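Below is a filled-in request sheet from our internal design queue. Each sheet records the structural input a requester submitted and the sequence that came back. We keep these sheets so that new team members can see what a complete request looks like end to end.

REQUESTER: design group, bay 2
PRIORITY: normal
MODE: inverse folding
CHAIN LENGTH: 386
BACKBONE (tokenized):
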């Protein structure tokens, strides 16, 4: 998987305003849309609220938001066709790959594709209670780390950051919670010492202003060995100078933290191209109407879209990006490769289910991971997860 590659402004911004090299079609949206998102109070939920306000004002479309505490709960309404899209975290990537909680009989690899994603000034890291005395991530040894049942995204992020410091789950005490919101209540109530979140999430600020306080240990880009360990568990992470959020972050007080786009708006490949085109086009054309509506919403700007990341773009979005002058031949080549990866995983899953795999959940997942690796390797693709 390639690392971060962000578009530059200039011609792209001009093309977006002018309708791009292709004649822009009129934006048509249904009278109602349903999206899933993280719990209320999260930055992802707040961004969807800002988008909903824009869609109501510009298109008279009612945007219904279904908050859910873990990745399975966020994707289930999409899979059942009760929601058209989701403001996901990195769990969408795990779903594509069919790993962790998605290495189960009811799931397997999911053909999820991008609409737009937000790359803003924030970081996504393990936030640590200041009263623990932790200064660096290596100081978390023996401390309590929050994890969320059914949310591989949150948990794998935490494990990847621990790996930066050379720590594993055996070096800390894992404390399970039912949802992201519950985990952060646990931070507030001194039930846990560190939990994953975006630096701009409101619950982080809540703990910051509590007697516990918040500290954000850094992950310097110069620590090549630490980053190699982190990216082995979280290949979607990249180094970033965070300039917004809790802990006094600002343009003049930045911290070197890990991050990836969030929220990541995505839909199943089976969603009609016209529908996704309308959603993506509206988000691009009406950017000014929502960019200040919630912290992080500015990251949805067309020039900040990452065209060579770990998930492919939906055909509807590709059309909108072309009209904005933001699509390239290199982007198309990368997208085709990722679509081929999804096809390879889907074919491997279908073949695997025909082998009468074990009924036991753990044995099923283990057998699938072997079959998955074999299929990707045969296709000349990196399994990433083994």
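RETURNED SEQUENCE:
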């Amino acid at each position: 998987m390639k690392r971060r590659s962000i578009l530059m402004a200039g011609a792209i911004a001009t093309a977006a305003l002018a309708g791009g090299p292709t004649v822009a079609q009129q934006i048509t949206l249904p009278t109602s849309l349903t999206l899933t998102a993280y719990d209320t109070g999260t930055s992802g939920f707040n961004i969807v609220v800002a988008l909903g306000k824009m869609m109501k004002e510009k298109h008279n479309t009612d945007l219904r938001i279904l908050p859910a505490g873990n990745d399975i709960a966020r994707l289930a309404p999409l899979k059942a066709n009760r929601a058209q899209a989701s403001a996901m975290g990195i769990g969408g990537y795990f779903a594509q790959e069919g790993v962790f909680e998605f290495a189960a009989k009811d799931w397997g690899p999911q053909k999820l594709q991008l609409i737009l994603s937000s790359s803003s000034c924030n970081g996504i890291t393990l936030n640590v209670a200041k009263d623990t005395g932790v200064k660096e991530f290596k100081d978390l040894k023996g401390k309590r780390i929050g994890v969320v049942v059914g949310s591989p995204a949150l948990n794998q992020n935490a494990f990847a950051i621990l790996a930066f410091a050379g720590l594993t789950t055996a070096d800390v005490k894992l404390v399970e919670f039912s949802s992201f919101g519950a985990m952060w209540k646990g931070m507030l109530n001194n039930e846990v010492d560190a939990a994953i979140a975006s630096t701009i999430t409101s619950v982080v600020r809540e703990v910051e202003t509590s007697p516990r306080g918040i500290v954000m240990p850094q992950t310097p880009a110069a620590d090549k060995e630490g980053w190699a360990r982190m990216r082995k568990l979280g290949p979607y992470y990249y180094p970033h100078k965070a300039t917004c959020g809790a802990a006094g972050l600002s343009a003049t007080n930045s911290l070197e933290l890990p991050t990836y786009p969030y929220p990541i708006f995505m839909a199943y490949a089976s969603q009609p191209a016209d529908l996704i085109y309308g959603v993506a086009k509206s988000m691009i054309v009406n950017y000014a109407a929502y960019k200040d509506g919630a912290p992080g919403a500015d990251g949805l700007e067309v020039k900040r879209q990452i065209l060579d990341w770990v998930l492919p773009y939906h055909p509807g979005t590709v059309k909108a990006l072309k009209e904005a002058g933001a699509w390239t031949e290199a982007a198309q080549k990368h997208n085709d490769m990722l679509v081929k990866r999804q096809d390879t995983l889907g074919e491997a899953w279908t073949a695997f289910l025909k082998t009468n795999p074990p009924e036991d959940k753990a044995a099923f997942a283990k057998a699938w991971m072997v079959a998955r690796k074999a299929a990707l390797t045969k296709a000349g693709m990196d399994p990433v997860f083994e």
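SHEET NOTES:
- The chain has two domains: 11-116+262-337, 124-259.
- Confidence is low (pLDDT under 50) at residues 1-24.
FILED BY: M.R.
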